[in-house]
Amino acid sequence: MNALVALCHFCELHGPRTLFCTEAVHPPSPSPPQPGSAIPGDRDREADREGEGLTMRANSSATQRADMCEGCRSLPASHPGFVSVDSETGIRYLSHQHPRQPQLFSVVRQACVRSLSCEVCPGREGPIFFGDEQHGFVFSHTFFIKDSLARGFQRWYSIVVVAMDRIYLINSWPFLLRHLRQTIQSLQDTALKVFDNEQCVCPQRAVRMNSAFSPAVFPHQRSGNAARSLTSLTQHSNLWASLHSSFSWLLKACGSRLTEKLLEGAPTEDTLVLIERQTEQEEEMSGWDCAEGGGSNPQPSQSESVQPKDFQFDDGRQEDLLGPKFKSLRHLRQVLGANDFRQLAWHVLMGNQVIWRGADPGLIQSAFNVLKALLPVGCVRAVSYSPHYEEAYRCNFLGLSPDVPIPAHVSSSEFSMLVDVLNVERGCVNPVSDDDILSLYQFNISSANTQPTDKGPTLLNKIEVALSNENLSVEVVSLCLLCLKEEWMNKVKVLFKFSKVDGRGKEDTQKVLALLGATGPGEEDNVRLLKFWMTGLSKLYKSHLMTAVRGGERTLTQ
């Protein structure tokens, strides 16, 4: 991640100061050496020495202008700093009191001053975002550290993340907020213990109330109280090494969690829904961290999501599943048979709840993985293996253990389908391959639905034509299915805009259905499919349509 993390402090004598800074130095791109030019290693070392010399000159000039107290200093001038090297990418993470390059020194200095003066959130403690194209964009989190000798018994600090990419920094807000709060909470808890011990030995509030106030003595009292370092406040001997590890990990993890992809055209609805779900998941985890923020020893969480137990198989990959498994829709069709597969696919496309009950969660998960390909991502709600029944509003794919009973209102409903996976009892025969699922299991399919499934929807008819064509490989069938889903998602968008946003009548809607090719044989199934797939549209697309319509209404009114 092309960013920089810095810890800043508001000194009572010298104002905002940068205490500690961690930056990522990327390895130079290899280039053929020119005759008479220095070798890359020498050139890098010379650049490092030049940057360090400029930084030291900048620091020394700043020191000459105003002497630094203990509260303004983290590492002594003779300290070489901290260095960590990422063996995978070759990126070096360098930490010292000030940035290595003089250009970054002024950028970080300005971010430090703004974070501890004018750019402050309500309450003076919390996150805020500011910046511009010239000086970079800043994610800042201000906080207080307890100090028994300070005014108000606390000192003001901030952690700033500086980057030139505004969009990237905004998209990383939930991730940065969650992990910076853990670092801040750890510092505050450690300092609070020191503060309580000092108050027990010598309560400063009583000392201050009993001491005589004199204007001549007041500046000297402030001067004595100001010179107290963060190491002294926390009694943490390896504080700066610990912060170097935290900041280095933060830069690496934040840089690897978001990657750029080349999209041919506008992003699909599936892509938009996945982005929205990831954002919601990060916000939920951030909320959990806020609710559990009172713990004294926060544990470092992973950069990826943590799922509830009932959803632990939802994102499982096919290659990670052990034992027998379905490899593709064609394989599932071959195992179940053409008639049972069509009935199963019909229920999936109509949005009915599909329940698989058996003792092998891996097999059930593989079935859900291939069946999910029939639907847009926004229409998939799966609980892959649960010890109890889940209602249809929670999931349309449900895996159950074999001893879980199905409620009567579900088994008698035409909007659900049950697939019982039974183990086949075999005598003393030769071992069977995992690919031979029919020799291991028997599948009993049941549903209270009496509506014929042989007419429609049109999408299912086209899918079955592709699956039954043995000349088409599995990869070609997958691409064909992707194109068919995009075609029908476009029809869903037109119908949503026409019926939901514009509020047209039934006759006009029927004309649009005819124009979309959804009338004729299987018309009822086509309409039902389109209405169900409307639930899979992204919130971004829906809000965009509603905003455009309201904007048009205001224009007509004016």
From TrEMBL:
Pfam families associated with the record: Folliculin, Folliculin_C
Residues of the UDENN FLCN/SMCR8-type domain: 73-538
This protein's UniProt keywords: Cell projection, Cytoplasm, Cytoskeleton, GTPase activation, Lysosome, Membrane, Nucleus
Main location group: other
InterPro entries: FLCN/SMCR8_DENN (IPR037521), FLCN_DENN_C_sf (IPR044886), Folliculin (IPR021713), Folliculin/SMCR8_longin (IPR037520), Folliculin_DENN (IPR032035)
Keyword Aminoacyl-tRNA synthetase: no
GO MF annotation list: GTPase activator activity
Bias (Basic and acidic residues): 41-52
Residue ranges, annotated region (Disordered): 24-60, 284-310
Biased composition (Polar residues): 297-306
Record Gene3D superfamilies: 3.40.50.12430, Folliculin
Single Gene Ontology BP annotation: negative regulation of transcription by RNA polymerase II
Highest rank taxon of the organism: Eukaryota
Transmembrane segments annotated in the record for this chain: none
GO CC list: centrosome; cilium; cytosol; lysosomal membrane; nucleus; spindle
Record's subcellular location: Cell projection, Cilium; Cytoplasm, Cytoskeleton, Microtubule organizing center, Centrosome; Cytoplasm, Cytoskeleton, Spindle; Cytoplasm, Cytosol
Family: Belongs to the folliculin family.
Protein known as: Folliculin
Species for this entry: Sinocyclocheilus anshuiensis
